[in-house]
Design goal:
GO biological process, one term: DNA-templated transcription
CATH superfamily of the largest domain: Periplasmic binding protein-like II
Strand order of the largest sheet: 4-3-5-14-6
Number of helices: 9
Low-confidence stretches: none
GO molecular function: DNA-binding transcription factor activity; sequence-specific DNA binding
Family: Belongs to the LysR transcriptional regulatory family.
Distance between the termini: 62 Å
Number of domains: 3
CATH architecture of the largest domain: 3-Layer(aba) Sandwich
Keywords: DNA-binding, Transcription, Transcription regulation
Protein name: LysR family transcriptional regulator
Number of strands: 14
Order of helices and strands: HHHEEHEHEEEEHEEEEHEHEEH
Length: about 300
């Protein structure tokens, strides 16, 4: 099978045929006349035919040149149109933005943020997928994922957008009926409500300034998301280590009580993760900028 002609040479030939002039085509293409002439000649040699009849007074298509022009001009025009559509799409925030996040984002503050974002960018449509599983962004066609905690090494790009901590809490009823821990090593003497635990046991890393502690905990309930952990903590099933966004309102209402208030989890960073920096769509850039500027009640701002 013979090699196809260079598309650049074909595009130059089409321009020359349209203008019926090497010089006018050269001006339109921003090329020297000699380059335009050389490309047309190279195309003719490649095809083994004469496409243009050249005289000192005029330039015209041969019969074969006319047939070749008729076959090439329309596909080239469609190619230019496709490139223009893609370029215009890249220049303004529009299109479907596929966003993944953990189940803990299924809260009114995040919905309000997305609602305001959609009002500001009416040409963007969001496709939301809440899951605690670490999705393969490329395989699942996800534009950006919001993730909490340590990130696995990968080829993905990550931007920090905030930080979070988890607090030790227990229901007010449990606190009334039990002597609460006074030191971290006493937490293990109490039932705990756990997140992502294996065999209903786990280790909690805690910090208090420069002090740190690792405690072994077990409990009657283990869950995959904080909604469930919070629900069972409120029902008095033990101590829970919850993000501030889950427990602050319940602490303010008196339903939950802080345990060892000087102790908490280490800081947990919140990241926006996406496949690549190259050719970032404007819809994604707009979302990342909005996310970094958002005064989120679900996490603390970066220091």
């Amino acid at each position: 099978m013979s090699q196809l002609a260079d598309l650049n040479d074909v595009a130059v030939f089409v321009r020359v045929a349209q203008f019926e002039s090497f010089s006018r085509a050269a001006r339109a293409l921003g090329m020297p006349v000699s380059t335009v002439s050389r490309k047309v000649t190279a195309l003719e040699e490649r095809l083994g035919v004469t496409l243009l009849q050249r005289t000192t007074r005029r330039l015209s298509l041969t019969a074969q040149g006319r047939a070749y022009f008729d076959q090439c001009s329309e596909p080239l025009s469609q190619l230019y149109d496709a490139e223009r559509v893609i370029t215009q799409t890249q220049k303004k925030p529009e299109g479907v933005l596929r966003i993944s996040g953990p189940v803990m984002l299924e809260q009114e503050p995040f919905y309000a943020f997305l609602s305001a974002f959609l009002v500001e960018y009416p040409l963007i449509h969001v496709d939301l997928y809440f899951t605690n599983a670490l999705l393969d962004l490329i395989a699942e066609n996800v534009d950006v994922a919001i993730r909490f905690g340590e990130l696995e090494d990968s080829s993905l790009v990550a931007q920090r957008v905030g930080r979070s901590v988890r607090q030790l809490v227990v229901s007010a009823g449990y606190a009334q009926n039990h002597a609460l821990p006074s030191r971290p090593d006493e937490i293990g003497q109490h039932p705990c409500v756990l997140i992502n635990a294996r065999n209903n046991e786990a280790h909690w890393d805690l910090v208090n300034g420069r002090k740190s502690a690792k405690v072994h905990v077990t409990g009657p309930v283990a869950a995959r998301d904080f909604h469930v952990v919070c629900a069972f903590a409120l029902r008095g099933h033990g101590i829970a280590l919850l993000p501030s966004s889950y427990c602050d309102a319940h602490i303010a209402s008196g339903e939950l009580v802080r345990v060892l208030p000087d102790w908490s989890s280490p800081e947990i960073f919140v990241h926006a993760v996406y496949p690549t920096r190259r050719f970032m769509p404007h819809k994604l850039k707009a979302f990342l900028d909005a996310l970094k500027a958002w005064q989120s009640p679900l996490w603390f701002p970066l220091r």
